[in-house]
Write the structure tokens for this entry.
Amino acid sequence: MSNVEKVTEMHGRVLRRRGGTVADIVSGLRHEIISGRLSPGSPLRQEHLAERFKASRMPVRDALRLLEGEGFVQLDPNRGARVAPISVDDVQEIFEMRVAAESLALRIALPELSNMQIDRAAAVQDRIERAPASEYGMLNAAFHKTLYAPAARPRLLSHIDMLGQAANRYLSMTIATLDYASRSNAEHHDLLLACRKRDEGRAVSCLVMHIETAGKALVSSLEAS
Amino acid sequence: MSNVEKVTEMHGRVLRRRGGTVADIVSGLRHEIISGRLSPGSPLRQEHLAERFKASRMPVRDALRLLEGEGFVQLDPNRGARVAPISVDDVQEIFEMRVAAESLALRIALPELSNMQIDRAAAVQDRIERAPASEYGMLNAAFHKTLYAPAARPRLLSHIDMLGQAANRYLSMTIATLDYASRSNAEHHDLLLACRKRDEGRAVSCLVMHIETAGKALVSSLEAS
DNA sequence: AAATCTCTTTTTGTATCCAATTTTTATTTT
DNA sequence: AAAATAAAAATTGGATACAAAAAGAGATTT
């Protein structure tokens, strides 16, 4: 979020040094949407955002287009941008897609997976069990990514990443993480064990279960509210 | 592509005003990349594109960002945009992802699929067998989309669409479509038959085979050149 | 009350700057 | 001649200002 503050002068006004403006706005806005500080459906006015991020409209528009591609922002022609709405159907769909994409990634990665890489995933799992709940989403993504990395499938991995971020948006809305955490951790350990044995069938079914139960927990938690 | 030529005055200079500029540039550029008229790796300079599409740099940048999200353009900071490179690995990955995504879509759609919708897909297949090879990519996508539509999964369907477009880019590079066509048509008929019987297992395995053989044909055709 | 017509707000697009980076070219140095 | 360096040319990233179109809100008329 912080930026190099090498300031210079332009048209009599102060401005930040070049670089990373769009990236800043994207990550800032994305974080606010994922964390729920920006509620679904609320309008995102270009001028307002430009002022909030101390930038001009141009990088703001670039950022909005990027976030539209990621599914966090809805852009209607001539009507502007709004925080993408949420729905139970959407969660369901995201988790169905995660099952398909991540089981594919695991199947490809498993034969290439070294013990060292499994150890690294186990270390991430250790951090998950110690870290505060607020970091769960990010660490969970890191755990899964560590296991899929040997697949060497850039498109697939970035697709999985996008789905994970979309899921995090819903995850952070429900405080159901607390009683779900222990179950998720146990499932991660099961998955690691199956990976160590290089048991593809077992590993994939562990993963499918893991994602499906997470999805179901989220859906029921959303339907309750 | 044609546009209203409302002319107006600004800063003493004449300028043409148009509507839907960004969409025009995106679809125009995308078509040129898919059709291969713009070769992989060739630079896309903003100023040059702006002149070619008779627009200013802002909509050009918007378009480039969108196309980057779709994977057709590669954007390096401070170095500009280039037509995304191609590789055999990329084709392989795209078709792996298509298998996963489309078999999921078919599994979800099949129980909701009506005979009328199957007939509509069969009608599209009829058109495929009559139409010129240049329209194969677009019609093939329409055929598959017709079968998946009842799944009512917007995210999944647009993901499948993107993969299809990415695949079309490689498809149009190889003229291997000619001896592949008869095989593809037979597979489409098999798939339709399995759908009519509502035989999920058979339909999905037909589809998986269909996509995999298409991928393999493309890979071997690319490796030959 | 319903329809029409302003008036305002907001988005979309154009044009023109300027600064920071590459990339290229020319010039020196070894 | 080859390598290193400095100057110059392209190009991108970003800012500002302005024009036009659409959507929304009021006010007016029917």
User: Anything to note?
Assistant: The interface with chain A takes residues 20, 58, 61-62, 65-66, 69-71, 77, 90, 93-94, 96-97, 100-101, 103-104, 108, 153-156, 159 of chain B (CB under 8 Å).
